[in-house]
Amino acid sequence: MHSYPMITHKSRKLIVCILVLSVLVLAPGSIATAAGSGGLVTLTVTVSGLADASDIAVTAEKEIDGVPTFFTGTTDSDGVAILKIPFGGTVHVTGEPVSGFLTPSVDVTLRQLKGNLSVSCVLAYEDAQDDIPVAGVSVKPEIQSLFVGQTVQLEKTIEPPNATNQDVDWSSDHSEVAFVDGNGLVTAVAGGTATITATTVEGGLSDSSVISVLVIESVNALAEMAAAPGSILALPQTVTANLSGGGTYPAIVSWELPALAENATITRVEGIQYLSLEADATGSYALIGDVEFTTVTATLNIEVLMTPVIPIETASLSTDTLALFIGLDRDTAILTLNVVPEAADTSSLIWRSSNELAVQIDSISPDKRTATIRGVAPGEATISVLLPASPEETLDTCLISVAPDPLLTDPAYIVATLADDPAPVDQFDDREDVYIRCYDLPDGNYHIRVTDKGNRAPLGTGEVEVTGTDSDQDGVMEFLYNLFFETGFDLTSNYSVSYFIEMSTDASFPAGDDEETGLPKTFVDNFKITSPVPTLPKEDVNVLVQEIINGVAALPSASIVGKHVILCREIDLGTAAEYKDYIVQYGPEGHPVFSDEVKLIGHVGENGWVDWDIPKETIKIGGYILLIELPGGYVSNLNLPNPETDDGSLLKEVHITRKTPVYRTINVSNQGTP
């Protein structure tokens, strides 16, 4: 919901929107680009009413495929901002809040027309007439770590953003640790913690940021490096620094040669230092490195060998995709770099993770050919092995997915089953068939409720007394009851057919775990009941394709744009798990003819989004597989676990439900020559 300023009849100014239609002349037989197929409208926004209308942020909000999407721009010296927005629908345009002025906004209708469409509108700022009082203040970042001598600029935000008085007073509770000036610039002085507070001049409201000042106590020794006379060696850019409060930090190091060193020089190219050895260089060199943020120094020994250092011709990692799991003992793996020739020098190789919040490099072998990789949180990362050249040269990469471990279960739990079979059941033909099997639940009186996934109001309630019996050789206590008999639960009023069963000794069904036993306070399982099958329009299947280049997501390159993406009915994953398995034959001009299992066919657009063709048939609720056509040497993340789920399902496994849009991001990367 948007809030609009109240404008009196005395101060009302016009917010003008002008539609300028350009006529597109089509050649016979040509087709104009229609809405939804990548066409863009040019929106020209002019800001008025300010003495200086330059550098004003302008935001346009539009709902695309049910998702609020924002387009932003900044006005030039003439107060004009240009935005590019897809055709169709309505866009809500808002100007940046300016203190003492009402914030203007306007809705602009982008009519769905063939041809080019240009739209212009004016955002007119008006004096607020009366002072706008301060309602609050916030400071970002809330927490920041600095080294001695570093600075950080704190940003304060006054609420409302256009309050007349924007002034605050900055203060530090420990200026000897971190000092703050009148503009919120913080300087780290000494090790410790300080709280920096911004207090509004009007109203005395405040918010704070906690600054931790770190101190480097020592650095870890570096392994000796080898070089040949006449060679150029890339030097390490960082060293592992040990912090006073515990933990480590990759500190930047700047190297220098000893004063008496001969036949060698150090140069810096694009931030990387290189040691150049002349043809008659011999012996060893002990380099001294100044470590950032400290007076501690590092030492690097270079041994000059009389035999040449053998360069790497080719190198490849032991795998190009890898799945790690959080929860049990499957969160680590070892990657090995296979090098040709075997005797090649690998001592200067660099291992890097594109996302250390998800995947970290635990350790690297002395010869830099193996590394232990650890998954620390659900997500994705690319592990790259690089040569420290200028620019750095990527030898190979591995795409890694981290997901919750599907094997991890609570020691006590409940599961929906049939009466005579303990195997978990996800879908039942009738509600009378649902039995709840309880494993190792403490004896006692349990409250039960059945709820719909989309509506937490109970569909049925009841109580059972759990008195387990030793039902197997492992001593697991088991209790069984019929859910409908105990609760009489109603069928859901919609077609989502997803039900939750909750059991607790507390009638409020609290969340979390018991502090003494570690068991859930409320035990939960879910299931489905067969019902009429609804459908999903193709517009609700949203697939974005990104190309990972040196660990960074980018728009797909020309080799990916136009490639097929297909959505198929789920069949035996053991025999048909790849794109090629769904091709019956190739038709005219090499176009593939797909099997009847393929329900949606689309192509990767230049913006990465997949444009779907008209479906071959109605998309029904159920299981599907998402696949992509890839050029030789490319890999995708579709065969890796989906980090957003905790059941171990792969990213390519898509489950269609009623009125629930599907979103998938396919990451592809070029692993080299196929």
Number of domains: 6
| Structural class by SSE content | mainly beta
Provide the CATH superfamily of the largest domain.
Immunoglobulins
Biggest β-sheet description: 6 strands, mixed
CATH architecture of the largest domain: Sandwich
CATH fold-level label of the largest domain: Immunoglobulin-like
Outline the low-pLDDT stretches: 1-38
Query: Helix fraction?
Result: under 10%
Q: Calculate the terminal CA-CA distance, rounded to whole Å.
A: 51 Å
Radius of gyration: 32 Å
Biggest sheet, strands in spatial order? Answer: 20-23-24-27-28-21
Shape: globular
Detailed description of the structure:
- 1% of the residues lie in helices and 49% in strands.
- The chain is mainly β and 674 residues long.
- The chain folds into 6 domains: 17-127, Carboxypeptidase-like, regulatory domain (Immunoglobulin-like), CATH 2.60.40.1120; 136-214, Immunoglobulin-like, CATH 2.60.40.1080; 217-304, Immunoglobulin-like (Sandwich); 314-403, Immunoglobulin-like; 413-529, Immunoglobulin-like, CATH 2.60.40; 538-670, Immunoglobulins (Immunoglobulin-like, Sandwich), CATH 2.60.40.
- The strands form 15 sheets. It has a 6-stranded mixed beta sheet with strand order 20-23-24-27-28-21, with no helix packed on it.
- A hairpin with a 5-residue loop joins strand 51 and strand 52.
- The longest helix has 5 residues, at 483-487.
- The chain is globular.
- It starts with 16 loop residues before the first strand and ends with a strand.
- The model is unreliable at 1-38 (pLDDT under 50).
